[in-house]
Amino acid sequence: MKPEDLFDLSGKTALVTGGATGIGRMAAEGLMAAGARVLIASRKEEACRTTAAELNAFGYSGRVEGFGGDVATEDGIAALTAELGNRVDQLDILMNNAGTSWGAPLGEFPHSAWDRVMRLNVAGLFHLTQSLLPLLQKAASDDDPARVINVGSVMGETAHGDRAYSYAASKAAVHHLTKILAKELAGRRITVNALAPGPFVSKMTAFATADESVRQRVGAQVPLGRVGRPQDIAAALQFLCGFGGAYITGAILPISGGINVETGPDLFQEAYE
């Protein structure tokens, strides 16, 4: 293997759920730039087709196809699995990115916010992965495993509720499921890893990132001094899905600018002054 080939994804097929916007779109661009054929799916079929056309116009070596798919229901997952089976013979990469959130102050957080968030972020992710195992196994080999990349969150590993209690708990569940599946699927030569992003510009975080002045203030609270950029996601996908990531499974990769290791002020700060 030549060093210049470590991140080459030519000839590989990938599915990115929720791939029309935000982190999903960033990942799709990174995968196609490395040569992959990328299928993006979400409930908003037209948005997926529009995003695919926009990405294909960049002239990368890979290609993107957009179509509709709902990961929030059992019937939706069955339909998505069938549609994918009509399009590909095997699946090298599955990125479980589709997700939702809900925010409300403590004391006002509704019961309904739990079922809606957990159904998509946890149950949908698990059931889609389970449904696509036959296609993933067809692509898997000792030297080049198939890859599953789950999208967790830094809020799933740190005590940041930020009024999104069901979201934070769902992402902690995603991290734990990632480790369980990594253990169980290693023998089938399928690696399972997760990203744990901090703040990135997306529809989900529009309240904190759409306005530039607010985005700068939010970024200033991150140890590395900024919110995430598209290339941070793209590079992580190229690494984990290329030959460089072939020996990594069960990892929770923090892409959070250091939020994952924040512990507050030094315990003995007052004694030093």
What is the average of the pLDDT values? 94
The largest sheet has its strands arranged as: 3-2-1-4-5-6-7
Low-confidence stretches: none
Query: Which second-level CATH architecture applies?
Result: 3-Layer(aba) Sandwich
Structural class: alpha/beta
Give the total of domains: 1
CATH topology-level name? Rossmann fold
Number of helices: 10
Q: Please state the CA-atom Rg, rounded to the nearest Å.
A: 19 Å
CATH evolutionary superfamily: NAD(P)-binding Rossmann-like Domain
How much of the polypeptide forms β-strand, as a percent range?
5-15%
The number of E-state strands comes to: 7
Can you identify the CATH class?
Answer: Alpha Beta
**Main beta-sheet annotation:** 7 strands, parallel
Estimate percent helicity: 40-55%
Structure description:
With 273 residues, the protein is of the alpha/beta class. It has one domain: NAD(P)-binding Rossmann-like Domain (Rossmann fold), CATH 3.40.50. The chain is 42% helix and 14% strand. The protein is built from ten helices and seven strands. It has a seven-stranded parallel β-sheet with strand order 3-2-1-4-5-6-7, sandwiched between helices. The chain starts with 12 loop residues before the first strand and ends with a helix.
